[in-house]
Every structure is written in C-alpha cells, then in structure tokens.
Write a structure and sequence with these properties.
Layout lengths: L2 H38 L9 H11 L6 E5 L6 E3 L4 E5 H4 L4 H18 L3 H30 L2 H39 L4 H40 L1
Parallel strand pairs: 1-3
Antiparallel strand pairs: 2-3
Helix pairs in contact: 1-7, 2-4, 4-6, 4-7, 5-6, 5-7, 6-7
C-alpha cells in the first residue's frame, strides 16, 4: 500500500476508534477543572491548609520520613517516591478549601501506598520502563512495518504499545485506592465535616475519571493500530 492508502486508513481509523475517547477525555478534563474551581471557593470549617491535611494523613499512617513541599503550576500535585516528597501546587499547599484538602490528602494516600508496599503500585512501577518504551516505539514500528510490508515489525509495534495500555490499566486501582485512603482518613480524623467531605469526594471522583478517559484513549489507539496492521496484511 502507498502513502495515500495509509493516510486514508489512519484518518478513518482515528475517527472510528480514537476520536470518541478523545472527546470523552476533554470532557473529563473540563469536569475536573470545573469541580476544583467550584470547591476551591468552599473553605473548610476547621481551617486546615492542604499541607496540614496531608500531614494529618501521613501521621495517621505513621509515616514520618515524607516531606511536604510547595511546587509551582496548576494541579501539579504529586508524590515523588524517589525523594520521599509530596509536592503540592500553590493553589493547594496554603489553601484551606475543600478542593485543596481533597487533593492534598489524595497525594498523601500515594505516600501511604508506598509505605505499605501496596501491590498494584509495585506492578505499575514494574511495567513503567517497558510501557514508556512502548508509548514511544509502538506507533513508529507499526507504521514502519506497514510501509515495508513486513508484518513482524508491525506486530512488534502493536505488542510494544500493549504495554502502554497495560500501564494505564494498572494506574486505575492505584489512583482509586489513593482517593479511598484520603476520604477514609478525612472521615476518621474529622479533617472535613460531612458536607465538605462530599465536595472533596466530587473533586477526587472527577480527577479519577481523567485516568479512565486516558485508558480509553490508549485502548482506542491500540485498536486503531491493530486495524491498520490487519488491513495491510489483507
């Protein structure tokens, strides 16, 4: 097949297999931003900051070797297991909002996962090196095999990309569990009251849906690759 055949198949398969999930991903992203903005204006009755709430979660789990630092950017909050540091964005670190506390407690939940050797996060970390390689090489190898008419290279590209999908799949239980840990500690230690907790839950649920959408996009791209490779074989 020539370039025009590939161009047609590539665009056709993108519209069928990927575009619907990209739209879903955009909706999920807009929802998390909307939820965060809404509950950023709702201040907690106890007046704890995001940093203080994260510290309370760490203390609940008996974790004493994790630092909490401020980082620039918007929704750049994350836990760095290599440095044992929870990094909270400027809108979370000093804020006493329900949204900030929910996000901060979620990141502390990740720290608790590492402290307890949570199995799904170990699986995700094990997959990561190959998944990172697969996300970079999957499409190029599949396309190269398509143009050369050499099926083994194309199949290798599909196989590499499968690891990228597996990584996205392995991420889901990690993220959902971190949120469950956060909400559980919020309940047990009264970091937020009942109504405020519901707001934090909505923020974390919206954030979790972005990972579901990302997995859907990856699966769509995998189906697209399989479709193109099979059409070349036919």
């Amino acid at each position: 097949m020539n370039y025009f055949s590939y161009y047609y198949l590539s665009n056709y398969s993108y519209i069928i297999f990927v575009l619907p999930f990209v739209i879903l991903s955009l909706i999920a992203s807009a929802r998390v931003n909307s939820s965060f903005k809404k509950y950023s204006s709702v201040l907690s009755s106890r007046g704890l900051t995001g940093a203080q709430a994260a510290f309370d979660v760490l203390r609940y789990y008996g974790i004493t070797n994790v630092k909490i630092e401020r980082v620039s950017g918007n929704l750049t909050d994350h836990f760095d297991p290599r440095a044992n540091v929870i990094r909270l964005s400027e809108k979370v670190y000093d804020s006493t909002s329900v949204a900030a506390i929910g996000v901060a407690c979620h990141e502390a939940g990740h720290a608790a996962q590492y402290a307890e050797n949570y199995v799904p996060i170990k699986i995700r970390n094990f997959i990561f090196p190959v998944a990172s390689l697969g996300s970079k090489l999957g499409f190029p190898l599949a396309v190269l095999g398509f143009f050369l008419g050499f099926q083994p290279i194309a199949v290798a590209g599909v196989a590499f990309f499968c690891f990228a999908v597996l990584f996205q799949l392995a991420t889901l239980p990690v993220e959902f569990n971190a949120s469950r840990r956060a909400l559980s500690v919020i309940d047990e230690t009264d970091i937020l009251d009942i109504d405020e907790r519901n707001g934090a839950k909505k923020v974390l649920t919206a954030a979790a849906m972005t990972y579901v959408a990302a997995l859907a996009v990856s699966i769509g791209n995998l189906l697209r690759l399989i479709f193109i490779v099979n059409r070349r074989r036919d």
